[in-house]
Amino acid sequence: MLSTYTAKNLDDALREACIKKDCRIDELTYNVLEENKGFLGIGSSVKIEAYCLNDVKEFLFDYLGNFFTNANIECSVEIFQKDDSFTIMLDAENNAVLIGKNGKTLQAINTVVKSAVNSEFKRKFKILVDINNYKQERYSKLKSMAIRIAKNVSRTKVDASLDPMSNDERKVIHQALANFKHIKTESEGEGLNRHLVIKYVDHKEEVSE
Using one digit for the tens of pLDDT, what is the confidence trace for 56-89? Predict the structure, then answer.
């Protein structure tokens, strides 16, 4: 969790944070909240706010625990971390309910969790909430579908509009088609109607999100 530390100088504050969090200085992210230089160095102090990636992981466990407790849902939570990316695997008695129709409930959970983490730590983390690899399998299906459609667009030179989908799913398709010759992907529409259009171009252009 975010914690505050006050010491005579920045080095001492960082050292205290590392001791309390059992981490190295290079693993800390911090902001200086207050700095008092004192008089001739006497009475100087620095107050910082600091966290490490273990704090993010702890926050995720606590947040999801409270989330499912309040929803009266028994659900196990596993969190896998790689650098500043976190994959959260959920397993409940009725996973279908958490996934929802076309994965919309799971997508909503993803959105809520990302928002909570980013708000708490004031930065964007890569967060993926998944259930029985539903999202990963959907990503794989979307890639296969997009490649198939892109080949058809390349052959016929007729643009193709896809169904509305979430930002992370659009990003998967953008990346899957990034190296296709004469193909670009462009997001169109607003809100729930935002969707991808796979377009034929004579010369490769940048992707439009």
Answer: 999 999 999 999 999 899 999 999 999 889 999 9
Contacts 24+ apart (CB under 8 A), 128-132: 128/85, 128/86, 128/87, 128/88, 128/168, 129/88, 129/90, 130/87, 130/88, 130/89, 130/90, 130/106, 131/89, 131/90, 131/91, 131/92, 131/95, 131/98, 131/99, 131/106, 132/91, 132/95
- Can you give the pTM of this predicted structure? 0.77
CA atoms of 159 and 199, how far apart (whole Å): 5
Give per-residue pLDDT as tens, 97-121: 999 988 889 999 999 999 999 999 9
Q: Residue 120's CB: how many other CB atoms inside 10 A?
A: 17
Q: How many Å apart are CA 159 and CA 2, to the nearest integer?
A: 48
CA distances from 147 to 102, 165, 196, 206 (A): 21, 16, 13, 18
Would the CA dihedral through 147, 167, 117, 49 be positive or negative?
A: positive
- Whether the Cβ atoms of residue 153 and residue 183 lie closer than 8 Å to each other: yes
Specify the pairing of strand 160-161 against strand 195-200.
antiparallel
Short-list 204, 166, 170, 169, CA closest to 184? 204
* Interval 40-46 mean pLDDT: 76
Amino acid 198 reads I
Q: How far apart are CA 50 and CA 117, in angstroms?
A: 15
